[in-house]
Specification:
heterodimer; A: mainly alpha; ABC transporter involved in vitamin B12 uptake, BtuC; two-stranded antiparallel sheet; two-stranded antiparallel ribbon; 74% helix; globular; B: alpha/beta; Rossmann fold; 2 domains; six-stranded parallel β-sheet; four-stranded parallel β-sheet; 10 helices; elongated; Ribose transport system permease protein (chain A); transmembrane (chain A); transmembrane helix (chain A)
Chain lengths: 333, 317
């Protein structure tokens, strides 16, 4: 608590040059990585490769935008990967049941609405347990992490749930299609990030989220309806997961028990690399976007080169994450 | 031997056998990993199917099938099976080899007939019999098919599984075939795709960016192959002649059967090896005959001609 009180005057004065550079850490990290990548393989900067990387980053990115709200509010959601898998599976089952062997736009629209409803419902559940039930977010979402994946595994009998072919063809443009030459997942990611930024920085709700994360007790005294704000935060996370799933399902047309494993950690890593404090209180959406891009670029670079033993891939990812965190440590002092 | 004597002999043997069967009420415990991906989903399905089949076949046999999410849970589970269910035989597909060796050995010491499936224990003395798929065989058969179909020359990319002994055995055997029999084939790169569709998609996308000409893909596993196919389709690449997966997922077997232009074959690594293990164990217990110490279920090449034999539409895998 003393820490956050000490931060208030520091924030109101103009930060020195060094710490302003520090806040650009993730961007500098991404830039450095891109230079290294291009030196290693000139194909890195081709439009098709960059659009591959950005499209992949959009799944984790959209989820991470939601996670930014949750983490700024001082919470955490560990269930997002399992939730994505469960939403994907249920959505496919619903669409298959409605569509039979045929089906088209209408069935897909209903499937999408159901997905959003499940996501929002899961968020509502988390928020209610956490805010009104006063259970630690870590515990609630650790519980649902297991529950969601187990339910999906049950629904799929351990195998995979696949969308029937006609529907799969009708739905695939949502992932593979383009809007004005830009792949649709990237467009959706950009819109979600912009909206997220607006909500966080330009609305009363956004200020409340930051206030709760910085000091929940003070926010309560200031007549902020803390419970309500928290519930909405987890619902935003759930909706973001559902949005990511809407883009994920048309990619492979199937969900299996291995869908979305460890996405929660990737999303949290993107948020933290982007400069949001894990203890809550302050953060930024653009940082999260850069964080997601950075994470997915590392993977891409490792696949594009073979100078490092494949056994060490995870180590390289770890090193880059720590280096980027180091680049922006200036803010804390 | 006269007719009557022969009849008498047959009659007395069958009487003896049925008397023995009536006396030996057997309980067989089956401990397998829970369905956490396609292949283990198949294992769970086949274990449950075989339980029904066996209990019909041998009225004196009870089969208990339990799944576990990790090695620790599995160790507790087989302990419970011994104390609570009083099993006389255990068929186990261990989550991990090292941590389960001691618990299985304990049961064997107490007189339980132990049969280990697929993942070998670190000490073979802990088991009475071992039934496994053929990992080097999967790599070898795949290598032969890739080499032969490409006519001994071309560019191949390899997508590996998770860094484990099983994966190394497959890839090493594949590489050995290439080196010895098809030196004209160039293996462009090998990356891990973790037996997972999403990773298969990502790694293949990057390969397509990196290599302008790829003749064939060895995806090693059918889940990976699903992602690989989508990546090729998205990139619109026409240079790839075929993608070879493995394990015998029903969707892939169907593609082979239907004459899919990219999926021309598959190599089995059947989850129903648990069925073979259970049948052999039950037979050995109920008829008091010895069971072979080691049974290797060969990996076979599935082509359009024999695909129908490997297609199980009801299995989840």
């Amino acid at each position: 608590m003393t820490e956050s009180r000490a931060e208030i005057p520091a924030r109101s004065t103009r930060p020195p040059l060094l710490s302003r550079l520090g806040s650009l850490g993730p961007l500098l990290g991404l830039l450095a990585l891109m230079i290294v990548a291009t030196a290693l393989n000139s194909d890195f900067l081709t439009v098709s490769n960059l659009s591959n990387v950005l499209t992949r980053a959009s799944f984790i990115g959209i989820i991470a935008v939601g996670a930014t709200f949750v983490i700024i509010s001082g919470g955490i959601d560990l269930s997002v990967g399992s939730m994505a898998a469960l939403i994907a599976g249920s959505m496919i089952l619903i669409m298959n049941a409605l569509g039979g062997d045929g089906g088209g736009g209408g069935v897909i629209a209903i499937g999408m609405l159901c997905a959003l409803a499940i996501g929002a419902g899961a968020g509502l559940l988390h928020g209610t347990f956490i805010a009104r039930g006063r259970i630690e977010p870590f515990i609630v979402t650790l519980g649902t992490l297991g529950i969601y994946r187990a339910v999906l595994t049950y629904l799929s009998e351990g195998g995979s749930i696949s969308l029937n072919n006609t529907l799969s063809d009708a739905y695939s443009p949502v992932y593979y299609g383009k809007l004005l030459g830009v792949p649709i997942p990237i467009v959706v990611f950009a819109v979600v990030a912009l909206l997220g930024g607006l909500i966080l920085n330009r609305t009363r709700y956004g200020r409340y989220v930051q206030a709760i994360g910085s000091n929940e007790q003070v926010a309560r005294y200031a007549a902020v309806d803390v419970n309500r704000v928290k519930v909405i935060t987890y619902m935003i996370q759930g909706i973001c997961v559902a949005l990511a799933t809407l883009l994920y399902v048309p990619r492979l047309g199937s969900a299996s028990p291995s869908t979305g494993i460890l996405w929660e950690l990737e999303a949290i890593a993107a948020v933290i690399i982007g400069g949001t404090a894990l203890k809550g209180g302050s953060g930024r959406i653009w940082g999260t976007v850069v964080g997601a891009m950075l994470l997915l670029s590392i993977e891409n670079v490792l696949n594009l080169t073979s100078i490092i033993s494949v056994y060490l891939n995870a180590a390289v990812q770890g090193v880059v994450i720590i280096v980027v965190a180091f680049l922006q440590r200036g803010k804390r002092s | 031997m006269s007719q009557t004597l022969k009849k008498f002999a047959v009659l007395s043997i069958s009487l003896l056998a049925s008397a023995a069967l009536a006396q030996t009420k057997q309980v067989m415990g089956v401990s397998i990993p829970s369905a956490d991906h396609g292949w283990t989903g198949g294992v769970v399905y086949w274990a449950n199917e075989t339980k029904k089949e066996l209990e019909k076949m041998y009225p004196n046999l009870t089969v208990i099938v339990k799944t576990a999410k990790d090695a620790n849970e599995q160790a507790n589970q087989i302990q419970d099976m011994y104390t609570v269910n009083k099993i006389n035989a255990l068929v186990i597909l261990p989550q991990e080899s090292a941590p389960l060796t001691r618990p299985v050995a304990n049961l064997k010491d107490k007189g339980v007939f132990t049969v280990v499936v697929d993942r070998a224990l670190t000490d073979p003395k802990a088991q009475d019999a071992y039934v496994a798929g053929d990992n080097p065989g999967l790599g070898r058969v795949s290598g032969e098919y890739v080499g032969k179909t490409l006519g001994g020359k071309g560019n191949v990319v390899v997508l590996r599984g998770i860094a484990t002994v099983i994966d190394n055995q497959r890839v090493d055997a594949f590489d050995k075939v290439m080196k010895e029999k098809y030196p004209g084939i160039k293996i462009l790169d090998r990356q891990y795709a973790n037996w997972n569709r999403d990773d298969g998609f990502k790694v293949m996308q990057d390969y397509l960016t990196r290599f302008p000409k790829i003749d064939a893909v060895w995806a090693q596993d059918d889940d990976i192959a699903v992602g690989v196919l989508k990546a090729i389709e998205q990139a619109g690449r026409k240079d790839i002649k075929f993608v070879l997966g493995g394990a015998g997922m029903k969707e892939m077997i169907k593609k082979v059967q239907d004459g899919d232009p990219l999926i021309t074959a598959d190599v089995t690594y059947p989850p129903n090896m648990i069925r073979d293990a259970m049948l052999l164990t039950a037979k050995s217990r109920m008829t008091k005959t010895a069971m072979p110490k080691t049974t290797i279920i060969p990996s076979v090449l599935v082509t359009k001609d024999n695909a129908a034999k490997f297609y199980f539409p009801k299995s989840p895998f």
